[in-house]
Amino acid sequence: MKINSKRMRKITNIIKKKKIYNIEECITTLKKLSVLKFTESIDVAINLNINTKKSEQNIRNTVLLPNKLEKKNKILVFTKGKNIDLAKKAKADYIYQEGTKNIKKEIKKFNIVIASPDSMNIVGKLGHILGPRGLMPNIKFGTLTNNIYNAIIKIKEGQIKYKSDKSGIIHASIGKVNFTRKQIKENFLAFMKSLKQSKPTKIKGEFFKKIYFSTTMGGSIQINHSDLNI
Hints:
Layout: H1 6-14, H2 23-33, E1 41-48, E2 60-64, E3 75-78, H3 82-89, E4 94-96, H4 103-106, E5 112-115, H5 120-124, H6 127-130, H7 148-156, E6 159-163, E7 169-176, H8 181-197, E8 208-215, E9 220-223
Parallel strand pairs: 3-4, 3-5
Antiparallel strand pairs: 1-7, 1-8, 2-6, 8-9
């Protein structure tokens, strides 16, 4: 029984599986094949030359993309003292105040949690809720910081976080199909530059093994990254 839709058969026919595309060809092809009623994301999957069994080789970082993805982040802040006023000034969506009831239920409404070090005694008690949702504040992601104002502003301006999975692969959305080709390429290069700066010092040889582009509901395309001058 055939399970492929007409759209997926078209994608399979156009994308040449064994071909390694240059970045311009890749972006053009993905935009051409996106015909869905919603605006698909442009995603990358980057296979890195790392050993994930060694904690020092696992990658996690943030990057501020030149062209914002327009993702609506809802930010919850845990902080004290003057940082409360700064969080309000930066327009955080919710600021925890000591004694706030039902905070465990409120957490479900947010996809970003920022905390200052002096509030980690409170945050730590909520680790069993924040941890599984990937919301635990972290220094490397810039979400555990004394500079609450800047952390909120950067996220609102389009900062995204990324980390390697158990297979040593980084997954991230770096654009939308309605972005221009230039905007998608700019975001990709900014992402790659940040990733290269995160390279563990003990890694020898080529850091990037394979790079694939795809859309939310489309096929994947391998690109030639050797000529990107990253």
